[in-house]
Amino acid sequence: MSTQTRRERERAERERAIIAAARDLALAEGWDAVTTRRLAAEIEYSQPVLYSHFRGKDAIMAAVAVEGFAELATALAAARASAADPRQAVADVAAAYTTFAEQRPALYDAMFTLAVDLPFASQDVPTDLARGFAELAEAVRPAAGDDDLEAVTETFWSGLHGLVTLMRGGRLRRADHDRRLAVLVDRFSR
Amino acid sequence: MSTQTRRERERAERERAIIAAARDLALAEGWDAVTTRRLAAEIEYSQPVLYSHFRGKDAIMAAVAVEGFAELATALAAARASAADPRQAVADVAAAYTTFAEQRPALYDAMFTLAVDLPFASQDVPTDLARGFAELAEAVRPAAGDDDLEAVTETFWSGLHGLVTLMRGGRLRRADHDRRLAVLVDRFSR
DNA sequence: CAGTATTCCTAGCGGTGCTAGAGTTCTGGC
DNA sequence: GCCAGAACTCTAGCACCGCTAGGAATACTG
């Protein structure tokens, strides 16, 4: 029994090491730099070991994304909790969202633009993802009016996502970001 | 002189053939299926010929994207021109935008999510891109209020872009698209 | 027709994600 | 304590990718 548990523990640790290595490498050099060979070298095992933990590279990226959902949800919750009034809550949550995306671009990509593989059908992802979504929903609730809250939240979210992705793709000038964010916040807080 | 011009003409035709092949292949099977080997086979030349026309695969994708900008601008202009009133113009332009993205996903990706290579620094792209952007701007102008028109337009655009990309990434249910679009249009037309 | 310039292709480089099969280590019953 | 069998990990390789050097074939010029 004891050796059995030890092996399982070591296996779990190695799995976390893979995810951590993938995450660090992606954050430092982007997802293009994350190859199965480099990952294997990083954890000091051979390539095939990766495939005994994950179905493939996409699944590894999905695992990294899962961590991101938890972080984002926490950041949004903190932003909303510290806001003085409802209008400010929308502004703070929006700022927290774009800041998160800007500071962890690789993580954000894994969460929302790449890796359609598993995360949205898995079990623990919806939990953290739903937490983040709920923060957005509570922020915009006062300004939803007669509209369906879910639709308003999803649309607000789309606005944030669009701002972030277009800016990082070089389609929007970074200098005007605050002005655009103010417009979006204004449209969803009155 | 005549042989010279004939050669130049043939070269230009071959270049268009490359772009057309890339476009067709991307629309039919996605950009992952567009490899330099398949492109070469399609135009019935060897691989290196591609590199005498374009710097690399990214440049080919950029050329495809350029065509897309012109099409999108035309679609938006038509939508705005046929709208009965200003409020309807926003709705129609928004619908035209998302329809374009939905019907030509590969083209849309080349334009707005991939290929940061040349298009935004080139010459003819800004023309067609600016045309499309101007259509959006004119549509939302009546509802801009005191806000800077450019900022409002960019934010509206971001909203559309976010809706499109999140939906295609499987993050938003396709069934609720119209409802979300209505929310966005409402927020940018009053 | 000979020599030159241009065009184009063959072959190959270093890289990718992924996998079959061999080899090694560990486990548990005698 | 030994040894068959199970569990594990590695080496080597597949088919593919974008891209390029260098030579063969073609077309043009005098």
Compact summary:
Chain A has 190 residues and is an all-alpha fold. Chain A contains 9 helices and no strands.
Give a structural overview:
2 copies of one chain form a homodimer. Chain A is mainly alpha-helical. Helices cover 75% and strands 0% of the residues of chain A. The first copy, chain A, is built from 9 helices and no strands. In chain A, α7 crosses α8. The model of chain A has no long low-confidence stretch (mean pLDDT 92). The first copy, chain A, binds a DNA duplex (30 and 30 nucleotides) through α3.
Topology of this structure?
Two copies of one chain form a homodimer.
Chain A lengths: L1 H28 L6 H8 L3 H7 L3 H25 L4 H18 L1 H8 L11 H17 L8 H20 L8 H11 L3
Helix pairs in contact in A: 1-2, 1-4, 2-3, 4-5, 4-6, 4-7, 5-6, 5-7, 5-8, 5-9, 7-8, 8-9
The structure holds a DNA duplex (30 and 30 nucleotides).
